[in-house]
Amino acid sequence: MAQPQQRPVQGVVRFYNFLSEETSFLDEVLAGLEKPQKALPPKYFYDAQGCSLFEQICELPEYYPTRTELAIMAEHAPAMAKFLGPGCQLIEFGSGSSRKTRLLLQQLQPPLYVPIDIAGDAMRAAAGSLAQAFPWLNINGVCADYTKPLTLPAFVGVPIRRKAVYFPGSTIGNFTPPEAIEFLRLARQTVGAGGALLIGVDLKKDKRVLDAAYDDAAGVTAAFNLNLLARINRELGGDFQLRRFRHRAFYDERKGWIEMHIESLAAQFAHVGGRRFSFSQGETILTEISCKYAVDEFRALAQRAGFAPVQTWTDATGQFSVHAMNAVQ
Ligand SMILES: C[S@@+](CC[C@H](N)C(=O)[O-])C[C@H]1O[C@@H](n2cnc3c(N)ncnc32)[C@H](O)[C@@H]1O
C-alpha cells in the first residue's frame, strides 16, 4: 500500500543569481536620461538604502496600502490557501521582505516557495528568516529582473500539483495597463495550464488620499525617490547635486495613476558615465507610476492576459483588493 506523503522535517534552501552584468544599470540610466521626458526605471530604487526606505514607507500613517493589504491577508489567508490548494508551488514576484507571504505560507504550506527579487540581499535575508519560521519550507530564492524572460530553476523531489504566481503590494501598478497585460501574459506562461494568480491591486480613490500616500509629511517617500540619484552617484560615479532636486508626486485622475518625479530646482547639468545631461528649472525625471484600478477594470485587464477571475477580497472601505484567478486553459 502507498505510504502517505510526509513533509520533510528540514526544508532545502537554495539561491540563484540571474541578474545580468552591472552594465545594464548604466545603460538604462543613460537611455532614460536621453528621453524627451527623462525617466528612470523604478526597479533601481531598491538598493540596500532603497529597500530600507521602502520598509519605512510601509509604516507611514499616510501609506495605507501595506497595512490594508496585510489586514486582507490576515482575514482571508485561509480562503486564499483553499483556492490555491495543496501541492501548490508559490512563485512570488518582487517578494521584498515577504511579510505578507508569511500569512499565506502558514495556511498553504506549499511544497516549494520561489521568491524572486532584483534586491538579492534583501531577498536572501527574508528567505533566511522564513526558513527559521517555517523549517519545513523548501525555498528556491531567485535574484532576477522579472521584466526580462526568466526560466525558473527546477526543484526535484517534491510533488507539485499546480503553480501559482503571488504578486502583492500592487507592484503591478508600476506598469502601464498595456505593460501590465504583457507582464501577466508572462506570469500566465510561468504557471502554465492549471496554474493560478493571487495578486494585490490598489483601488481608485479620493485624490487627496492618494497624493498624501505618495508625498508623506515626514519626507520618507521623498528620500526614497531622491535615493535613486544618490545611487547613481554612488554606483555609476554620477554627480547629481541632490539639494538641487526635489520629490514630486501626484495622482493624475485622467490617467488613473500616480506619477512620481524628481524635479530640477534650477537650470543645471549632471554627468553620468562620461555623458552630460542638462536640466532646465522645473524639468523632471519620471521615476515611477502607480496605476490604480476599479475591481472590474482590473479583472478585465487580467482576462486579456489569460486569467479567469475567481474571487476578489477587499477591505471594508474599498481601498485595496486581492484577486484570485485561474489560468485559462
Ligand atoms: C513595492 S515593493 C513590494 C514588496 C512586497 N512584495 C510588498 O508587497 O510589500 C516592490 C518589490 O519588487 C522588487 N522589484 C521591483 N522591480 C523589480 C524587477 N524588475 N524585478 C525583480 N524585482 C523587482 C523590489 O526590489 C521590491 O522588493
Quick summary of this structure?
The protein has helices at residues 23-34, 48-58, 64-84, 99-108, 120-133, 177-191, 207-213, 220-236, 295-304, and strands spanning 13-17, 88-93, 113-117, 139-143, 162-167, 196-202, 245-252, 257-264, 268-272, 275-279, 284-291, 307-314, 320-327.
The oligomerization state is single chain
Uncertain regions: pLDDT < 50 for 5+ in a row?
Answer: none
Largest sheet geometry: 8 strands, mixed
- Radius of gyration, CA atoms, in whole angstroms: 20 Å
Number of helices: 9
Report what the structure shows.
- The protein has 329 residues and is an alpha/beta fold.
- It has a domain at 13-20 and 60-205 and 293-327: 3-Layer(aba) Sandwich (Rossmann fold), CATH 3.40.50.
- It is 36% helix and 26% strand.
- The protein is built from 9 helices and 13 strands.
- It has helices at residues 23-34, 48-58, 64-84, 99-108, 120-133, 177-191, 207-213, 220-236, 295-304, and strands at 13-17, 88-93, 113-117, 139-143, 162-167, 196-202, 245-252, 257-264, 268-272, 275-279, 284-291, 307-314, 320-327.
- The strands form 3 sheets. The protein has an 8-stranded mixed sheet, with helices on both faces. A 3-stranded antiparallel sheet has the order 7-8-11. Strands 9-10 form a two-stranded antiparallel ribbon.
- Helix 2 packs antiparallel against helix 8 and helix 3 (64-84) packs parallel to helix 4.
- The radius of gyration is 20 Å and the shape is globular.
- The chain starts with 12 loop residues before the first strand and ends with a strand.
- The model has no long low-confidence stretch (mean pLDDT 96).
- S-adenosylmethionine is lined by residues 43, 46, 54, 66, 94-96, 100, 117-119, 145-147, 168-169, 171.
